[in-house]
Design a protein that fits this description.
0% strand, mainly alpha, 60 residues
């Protein structure tokens, strides 16, 4: 078998877990950013519409 040609089951599982958590964190951060006022968002290079399009999730 060639080096790196086939990845193991556990490596794929960890990669999938990390990717899922990255998406979850991104939605959480977008939700937190949406709580800021429009001027603050604009100052930091965000728009409310862009953040809404990316999706949000609130965690308590």
């Amino acid at each position: 078998m060639a080096h790196g040609a086939k990845r193991g089951f556990f490596r794929n599982a960890v990669d999938a877990l990390v990717a899922a958590r990255e998406r979850q964190v991104s939605r959480y951060v977008n939700g937190a950013l949406l709580m800021l006022d429009d001027e603050t968002l604009k100052t930091h290079g965000y728009s409310r519409e862009e953040l809404r399009r990316r999706g949000t999730a609130y965690m308590y």
